[in-house]
């Protein structure tokens, strides 16, 4: 039996990038856009 499990992507960034994002975070965001996943 297959189950759907939540997927979580965690980006280790500095405080400023956590608040405002950066190019690396945006790349991850674009890469997972089609997934039912959460980016923290």
Tell me the number of strands: 2
The major beta sheet can be summarized as: 2 strands, parallel
* Gyration radius, rounded: 12 Å
| Domains (count) | 1
Tell me the structural class.
alpha+beta
Unreliable spans: none
Helical stretch count?
Answer: 2
Order of helices and strands: EHHE
Strand order in the sheet with the most strands: 1-2
Measured by DSSP, the beta-strand proportion falls in: 15-25%
Overall shape: it is elongated
How far apart, in Å, are the first and last alpha carbons?
A: 29 Å
Helix content bin: 25-40%
- Arithmetic mean of pLDDT: 86
InterPro entries: P-loop_NTPase
Organism: gut metagenome
Protein name: GTP-binding protein YchF
Describe this protein's structure.
- There is one protein chain.
- With 40 residues, the chain is an alpha+beta fold.
- The protein has one domain (7-39).
- Helices cover 38% and strands 15% of the residues.
- It is built from two helices and two strands.
- The chain has a two-stranded parallel sheet with strand order 1-2.
- It is elongated.
- The relative contact order is 0.33.
- The model has no long low-confidence stretch (mean pLDDT 86).
